[in-house]
Design a protein that fits this description.
Length: 707
């Protein structure tokens, strides 16, 4: 009898019942496990609160309760996957039957997960644990703007420059957010100021996503009346960014005067004499009754506020309050300096500062002692040469260490041994690449070009990487790769990659040994497994299962393991930017060369890792063409864009598609360059993972590893 099947609603591919993800396009299949308690949430009695020490959704350890309201609680929890403290915002079970309340609650996460900005609170995940729904988000330390306003003594006011800085940061947040949504509830209670002075906008619970016109029903009024525009008071579902500009004007008025504008409000300069009249005009324009008379974009408002701030600080100096307020820095629009190498970059900055200071000192000395012909300034310290010399010491020590290491000597002695091409490559090519990088570094350093430090660091990786490579991993040297055909090559720093995919035995040991325990895939929950089964790759694990395993197991002296980026996976699987062979063994498909669909390979499902010698990358990673697909920690974008794909882990939110690479035992003729995606909670029977480890990132870490 034919086996029952289900079809992918997107591409039509057919799979046996029980499959959860389409391996062709990453779409969740009909009847798959989804919603509910995707991470194995614990069933609880309705109305029960989380307790200190409780593990929620197999991921969050409850540390404390930090807020309580009529509809739910906010807990401080430890995210055991991200390895950081976060806030868990919950909705009480009695409200989960009200679909409108639940929609509003989850809408906050759906909106905020798209908003990655320094002035917007970061949301990680949404889910359900038993009957309690939750949002996990950035744990903010600080106080709300409302708390700061309430703490100002009677008769005192917030400094004008301070108020402008707060508004400028809010404008920066909204300038980004308005690409996606209108906030519709801007008020001091939804604005946080951290101890470092960073302004954070939060609570997008009633925001209207531009792509979702049905979120609020017609003629529904939502928001806080004191800060709502006239059009929002009539119908909250039909407002645009100019409604938020009205609310910003109301907040600015309150910061300047201590009062919320009502009726025919007095101009701020009439309430507070030191207020510049030009600021009256800004507030008046924000609070115009007709949206057409307001600023038409928050960017235009921000530019006007910045001009006023410059004038206030230039003409009156920076006001200092006689009551406590955290510092609020200006919003910087400049780009970050390119990362070179920890301490080396710091030395270069000091070099520039030291050289400038020396020049100023010499000029002043010459002006004061022009008549003294014998007076002369001491020669400047050559900080560039000093920094490059520090790097050179490590590079030479690493090269000497590598040359004398037993591993390298053994690899070198294997040159004439048949079948040991990988050892031969490691013994010769890495050294040649390291020497080439170092020669380039010296040539560039002679021109006083800071790129010399990048080339020097790559040489350091080539020399030291094979020596410090952890057991069970391979070293992948720095170099370019192409992630997707037709896109530009990207450069990948040196790193380490698991030689084999993580096995059933390894993941089972982790789940049983983890301090708080970890959910096992159902098929691993029993006992009595044979050796071949335990040596086969683990499947049915989510993205966070894989991250947790990586963070918990086999830590190195300098960093924790994690999942590889898509670029790292591509680099480890097929190397350089020239068109790779479609398979590790050549250009022709060979069903017996790797674990693939059918039984020509000798296995009905996945094979024990490393079973196929032909399925090995140039750097020694096995099973890159078949066996199981593998998670990466890169966002899936097509065509591939390195900047978008390389989002930091904390910016990977609920619903973000993630790249998965490699073929599986269910595939036929899938090449190494095949790209697919999956959502983070997919638990597919054809999807597993392997771990990566970064090269030490600082000279101090390198020093710990050198004799």
């Amino acid at each position: 009898m034919a086996q029952a099947q289900t079809k992918c609603p997107k591409c039509g591919a057919a799979y046996p019942l029980g499959h959860q993800m389409c391996v062709r396009c990453g779409t969740r299949l009909p009847g798959s496990r989804g919603g509910g308690t995707p991470n194995g949430g614990m069933a609880r009695k309705p109305g029960a609160a989380f307790q200190r020490g409780q593990v929620v959704a197999s991921r969050y350890t409850v540390l404390d309760i930090i807020g309580r309201g009529g509809m739910g609680c906010i807990y401080k929890v430890r995210d055991n996957t991200l390895d950081e403290d976060v806030a868990l915002k919950t909705l009480l079970p009695k409200f989960t039957n009200d679909q409108h309340v639940v929609d509003r609650f989850f809408n906050e996460a759906r909106i905020a997960r798209q908003l990655s900005h320094p002035n917007i609170i970061r949301v990680h995940d949404i889910g359900m644990a038993g009957s309690v729904v939750y949002i996990s988000m950035e744990l903010l330390r600080g106080r709300s703007l409302r708390d700061w306003l309430d703490s100002i003594p009677e008769g005192k006011h917030m400094p004008i420059a301070y108020a402008l800085r707060v508004l400028i940061q809010l404008c920066a947040a909204l300038e980004f957010a308005h690409r996606f949504t209108v906030h519709r509830d801007i008020k001091p209670e939804n604005i946080m100021i951290t101890p470092e002075g960073q302004v954070k906008l939060m609570d997008f619970g009633i925001s209207k996503l531009k792509s979702d016109v049905n979120l609020t029903s017609a003629q529904m009024v939502m928001g806080t009346p004191k800060y709502m525009s006239p059009e929002q008071l009539k119908d909250s579902s039909k407002v645009d960014a100019r409604s938020d500009i009205y609310a910003l004007g109301a907040v600015l008025y309150e910061l300047l005067t201590g009062n919320v504008p009502a009726g025919l409000a007095r101009q701020p300069s009439h309430v507070r004499s030191e207020t510049p009249p030009s600021l009256d005009a800004v507030v008046e324009k924000c609070l115009a009754l007709d949206p057409k008379d307001r600023y038409q974009s928050v960017g235009a408002l921000r530019e006007e506020l910045q001009r006023l701030l410059d004038a206030v600080e230039r003409n009156a100096g920076i006001e200092v309050a006689d009551f406590n307020l955290p510092p609020v820095p200006a919003v910087s629009e400049g780009g970050l300096l390119r990362k070179i190498a920890g301490v080396v970059l710091m030395v270069l900055v000091l070099a520039a500062a030291g050289f400038s200071a020396w020049r100023l000192e010499v000029m002043a000395s010459r002006q004061q002692d022009a008549a003294d012909t014998n007076a002369h300034a001491p020669p400047p310290v050559d900080y560039f040469a000093q920094a490059f010399g520090e790097l050179e010491l490590r590079v030479m020590r690493a090269r000497e260490t590598a040359l004398s290491s037993s591993e390298v000597q053994a690899a070198a002695n294997a040159e004439n041994e048949t079948g040991n091409e990988t050892a031969k490559h490691n013994a010769t090519a890495y050294f040649a690449e390291g020497d080439a990088f170092w020669e380039r570094a010296q040539a560039v350093a002679a021109e006083r070009n800071p790129d010399a430090f990048e080339y020097g660091w790559r040489a350091l990786e080539c020399f030291l990487g094979p020596v410090i490579c952890p057991e069970g991993m391979v070293f992948v040297p720095p170099g370019e790769t192409v992630v997707e055909r037709g896109t530009d090559p990207v450069f990948v720093d040196g790193f380490f990659m698991d030689r084999y995919e993580v096995t059933n035995a390894q993941f089972r040991a982790f789940a049983l040994e983890a301090p708080a325990g970890w959910r096992l895939p159902d098929y691993l929950a029993g006992d009595g497994f044979d050796e071949a089964f335990l040596a086969s790759p683990v499947v049915g694990v989510t993205f966070y299962d894989a991250l947790a395993y990586a963070a918990f197991t086999a830590p190195s002296a300098w960093a924790k393991r994690t999942l590889p980026t898509e670029a790292q996976w591509a680099r480890a699987a097929y190397g350089g930017p020239r068109a790779p062979q479609p398979y590790p063994w050549g250009r022709e498909w060979d069903p017996s060369a790797f674990s693939t669909a059918g039984e020509n390979d000798g296995f009905a499902g996945p094979a024990p890792v490393g079973s196929f010698e032909a399925d090995r990358s140039p750097f020694g990673c096995y099973d890159v063409a078949g066996n199981v697909m593998e998670w990466t920690r890169s966002v899936f974008v097509t065509p591939y864009d390195h900047a978008e794909a390389a989002a930091p882990l904390e910016e990977i939110w609920f619903g973000t598609p993630l790249a998965v690479r490699g073929g599986s035992y269910a595939d036929r003729e899938v090449t190494l360059t095949e790209r697919r995606s999956a959502l983070f909670d997919e638990a597919s029977p054809v999807l597993g993972f392997r771990c990566a480890l970064p090269f030490p990132g600082t000279l101090e870490a390198v020093d710990e590893l050198l004799p």
